[in-house]
Amino acid sequence: MTKLPDFRLETYFSRWEFTARHHLTASDAETMSMAELLALAGPEDREAWDTLTLGYTETFGDAALRRAIAGMYERVDADDVLCFGGAQEGLNLAMQVLLEPGDHAVVITPNYQSAETIPLSLCEVSGVALDERQDWALDVDAVAAALRPNTRVVSVNFPNNPTGKVIDAADFVRLAELCDGRGIRLFSDEVYRGLERDPACILPQAADLSERALSLNVTSKSLGLPGLRIGWIACRDRELRSRLERAKHYTTICNAAPSEILARIAITARDRILARNRGIIAENIPRFDAFFAEFADLFEWRAPDGGCVAYPRYLGADGVEEFCTGLVEQAGVLLLPASMYHSDLTPTPADRFRIGLGRRDPGPALEAFADWLKARK
Predict the structure, then answer these.
(1) Looking at 248, 269, 290, which one is the last position of a domain?
(2) By the 8 A CB rule, do 206 and 188 touch?
(3) Domain housing 128
(4) pTM for the whole thing?
(5) pLDDT, tens digit, for every residue of 228-257?
(6) Which of 7, 23, 90, 153 is most buried, with most CB under 10 Å away?
(7) pLDDT confidence band for 1 (50 / 70 / 90)
């Protein structure tokens, strides 16, 4: 593998995620116990779980799981789905398959670091920043201007991590048409789909819009089941799907059999799980609204359009990096400062932090946060 830079966010989490008293920057929705998830299983899936043997599984993924995943799309069949060990493996292998030296890619920023650094390890990459001054809007004309004759991939993420932005559906359709017209692959990270605050804002999935596009998703974020480590790519280009499967032979080879059955239970019951998780976020948002209103001199706050993370601005004179460090070290409240979302491709805000809204009962964390802020005055 090409040498990759230190993964700032994951390194930061290695230090703090399981030692901080209050994880207030979680990127996943509230999880479930095994008992809760198994209670959602239909008779066939429960039988499969009870009689499971722990042998190898299909590289493409369990056939019943891929059928369940295909049911999430309008134009995708089970044979258009390839499962991975989480979304990160899917992103990594897709870029390895799609990009070569001499190619060019376009990446929307801010974004999860590997969406930028993996393409950069393979070829030239241009960034197009969401416009912070225009509520994180995407300028499709700016994407068009960034394209080159050798552009092979345009990579996007909506609902966006960390901003929670969902762009207009018309802009997303236009982006897909732009890519198709130029023979470019649209790679769409859709891991927060299903947690939009307004159902009217839910975007079409890229794999439904274009036979060439790739839709990335996972059980970790919207469904709140990161421990399963099941992600997938949906793409109607069977030749590309075959190349992705061969690339997977060099990584995980196949997924864990227990995780595949649990994932298909969750995906089959996704409407109930997503409704529960949207309810948690809807209940939490007024609490965060009230918190940031109390400290309006220190923060500029906006609730996300979708997903379960937001990206407020910190207005304090000490700067967001020192602020986040002091908060976790002194109060045990973990946030992610803007440096975790620094881009080498575009200017990125240096005064923001990621906060998570998807976990039940953020009250103790917000109380500890507020007490710390008051003690500093």
Answers:
(1) 269
(2) yes
(3) 44-269
(4) 0.97
(5) 999 999 999 999 999 999 999 999 999 999
(6) 90
(7) low
